[in-house]
Amino acid sequence: MDELTAQTILNGLRTDWLARNVVFFEMTDSTNTIASRLAQQGAPEGTLVIADEQTAGRGRLGRPWVAPHGTCLLFSLLFRPSLEARRAQGLTMVCGLGLRQAVRGVTGLPAQLKWPNDLLLHGRKAGGMLTELSAQAGHLDYVVAGIGLNVNVDAAQLPPEFHATSLLTELGHSVSRVALLQRALEEIEARYHELQAGVWPLQEWAAALDTLGQRVRLNTTQGALDGRAESVDEEGALLVRQDDGSVRRVLVGDIGLPDHGSDP
């Protein structure tokens, strides 16, 4: 088990500003909650809040996050982007792509993304993101991107209804959490620079989505929806062709069976 501390994270980290302010906890309730509080208090962009264990980690739809102490990556990043609030999904795209590339680069595993914010390994969930924001007059004040990744936890330890996996389970050996985190931070920062320069990551994100082309069942606030996931639009909404030939645009929804809520 590698030691995760503010110092080990900073040693060798090749970012300009992302995660240069590290707030580390052995145990906390939720890194997203703390990062949001720090954002309201004026914390600088790029602040990293990270924990070895969370007691109240949460994912989409209120799902719990199960992560034994010292086995996973559980962190939140603070951004202050120059974006309209309706473009906030760009931060989820940037973080998802950065996490995917880090996993691929460090482990060689064929990580893919699942709409809207999960990371998959061979069809099973290994991680995900939970993005929370504050906006004024239609523009973002700040965005907190919470990220969770199952690293050195045996998937057999996780409740079977989560349908989850981990890097350890897929590889058969442990992986350096520090190396993974540093690579993810570097990949995210590079994509965020492009986003701020006006380069929208939709094309790369769409190409990384395992969801597209698949038949899906979407749980939405308007009820269940069945169809084929055809594409995503500029704001990250999923376009689903229903059996009657009509196309539904879904901006907020959840695909498939209940799975592992892996977001801080």
Helices and strands, with pairings:
Elements: H1 6-10, E1 22-25, H2 31-40, E2 48-51, E3 73-79, H3 89-107, E4 112-114, E5 118-121, E6 124-136, E7 139-149, H4 167-171, H5 177-196, H6 202-208, E8 215-220, E9 223-232, E10 238-241, E11 247-250, E12 254-255
Parallel strand pairs: 1-2
Antiparallel strand pairs: 2-3, 3-7, 4-5, 5-6, 6-7, 8-9, 8-12, 9-10, 10-11
Helix pairs in contact: 3-5, 3-6
Q: What key phrases describe this protein's structure?
A:
single chain; 264 residues; alpha+beta; BirA Bifunctional Protein, domain 2; SH3 type barrels; 2 domains; five-stranded antiparallel sheet; 6 helices; 12 strands; globular; disordered C terminus
Percent strand: 25-35%
Number of strands: 12
The CATH class assignment of the largest domain is: Alpha Beta
Total domains = 2
Order of strands in the sheet with most strands: 1-2-3-7-6-5-4
| Share of residues in helices | 25-40%
